[in-house]
Amino acid sequence: MLPKVIEFVCVANKNISGGQEYFLAKFNEHVALYQRTSYSELTASLWLSLRLQLLAAFIISFVATMAVIGSGGNLPISFGTPGLVGLALSYAAPIVSLLGSFLTSFTETEKEMVSIERVLEYMDVPQEELSGHQPLSTDWPFHGLIEFQNVTMRYKRSLPAALHDVTFTIVGGTQVGIIGRTGAGKSSVLNALFRLTPICGGRILVDGLDINSAPLRDLRAHLAIVPQSPFLFQGSLRDNLDPLRMCNDLKIWNILEKCHVKEEVEAAGGLDIHVKESGMSFSVGQRQLLCLARALLKSSKVLCLDECTANVDTQTASILQNTISSECRGMTVITIAHRISTILNMDKILILDHGNLVEEGNPQTLMQDESSIFSKFARASTM
After folding, report:
1. If you average pLDDT over every residue of the chain, what do you get?
2. Where are the alpha helices (DSSP H) in 124-243?
3. How far apart are CA 259 and CA 214, in angstroms?
4. Count of CB atoms situated within 10 Å of the CB of 136
5. Fewer CB in a 10 Å sphere around the end CB: N or C, the chain?
6. Bridge partners of residue 349, in order along the sequence
7. Residue 288, Cα to own-chain centre: how many angstroms?
8. Which of 158, 196, 168, 180 lies closest to 354, judged by CA?
9. For residue 22, what is the DSSP state?
10. Domains in the chain, CATH or no CATH each
């Protein structure tokens, strides 16, 4: 329930100010539902504890009563000596904790069995098709021309299409922004481009080459991406930035300086510092800048940015924008936009809605058209 609450908070921050009351009401509704669930869980736990206490009291009382009655010889059952009576009572006393431990062990066993079921399910997931009959040149893509031709993609056969007959062209060397509401299909465009999910229909061309004919690993190796959640591997910073050791230290330091993170790296100890798991040695903003530096070191003609400014502050977002504008000239940059202000100076924008491309064009031109969908987005947002 908590992830839904957090989702509503994030959506409320991104939507128009006039809808604050609606999202606040939804937030309160889900918080109330979470509290009712927690109250029910707490009540059930207390009721179980009470029943265990009553059961233990009944067992101890039964043992004591039978010991008193049996001592008079009225029953065939006899504990023999007072010592045995005390031993029986001492064994009956911890019955509550023993029953509680049994229930806890039973619950944990059930949870672990569910984990085994998930592992078995993942083992049955079909592997990606890595082979391809079209070898790629070392300097491919040459211009960064990207064409989506009637692309349809769905994550499962039982689910509706995440992309439905989408067609657009991105000229090489231009910067394009993709916007839309949650679930509109923005990230699905990148999933299709990197072949993370196979498309159901249509085709995707990069510099005239159908990406389905290219070896999967080679395809992804020739494209660069900065994810929404920055990730660094455990190891040296040099290996994180240049895992294939294709660049010298001078080039790495130049890129770090252009990404405005050189001073932080020097203060941390240089390129040979050991990065902790998930990059916890750096802040979120610094990890995002390091991921951008890693993408720039790749020297690809196509750079994809998956809402890379969504989890950083305004100052870091501004640094990212300036770096992309100055260092990515001549590259094809595809940006999934989180803030309208980040795409106003781009060459082209694509607006998606429920997997359909509903509008495209130059943002400045669309802003002047009051009837366009983008102008309505811009007026409704806080930019």
Report:
1. 83
2. 186-193, 216-221, 237-241
3. 32
4. 18
5. C
6. 177, 361
7. 15
8. 180
9. H
10. 2-93 (no CATH), 146-380 (3.40.50.300)
pTM: 0.68
Q: Tell me what the mean pLDDT of segment 297-316 comes to.
A: 79
φ/ψ region of 73 (left if φ > 0, alpha if ψ in -120 to 50, else beta) reads left
pLDDT per position as a tens digit, 242-277: 888 888 989 999 989 888 888 888 888 888 888 876
Most trustworthy range by pLDDT among 96-110, 120-134, 270-284, 362-376 = 362-376
d(CA 36, CA 43): 10
- Candidates 326, 265, 258; CA nearest to 293 is 258
Q: In what order do the strands lie in the sheet with 163-170?
A: 163-170, 146-153, 201-206, 209-210
Task: Tell me what the mean pLDDT of segment 49-67 comes to.
Answer: 82
CB-count exposure of residue 340 (10 Å: 0-12, 13-18, 19+): buried
Burial of 107 from C-beta contacts in 10 A (0-12 / 13-18 / 19+): exposed
Q: CA torsion, points 71, 77, 80, 81, in degrees to nearest 10? A: -50
Average pLDDT over residues 162-169: 93
Q: Tokens representing 78?
A: 């006899």
- Running DSSP on this structure, what letter comes out for residue 199? -
Long-range contacts of 360-369 (CB under 8 A, 24+ apart): 360/168, 363/177
Helix H or strand E segment including 377:
helix 373-380
**Mean pLDDT of the region 129-139:** 78
Which amino acid, one-letter code, is at 150? N
CB count in 10 Å sphere of residue 20: 12
- What distance in Å separates the CA atoms of residue 301 and residue 339, rounded to the nearest whole number? 24
CA 39 to CA 373: how far, in whole Å? 45
DSSP for 72-130, please give it. TTSSS----SHHHHHHHHHHHTTHHHHHHHHHHHHHHHHHHHHHHHHHHHHHTSPPP--
Distance CA 88, CA 284 (A): 61
C-alpha 383/C-alpha 371 separation (Å) is 18
The letter for the amino acid at 372 is S
Report residue 277 as tokens.
């798991």
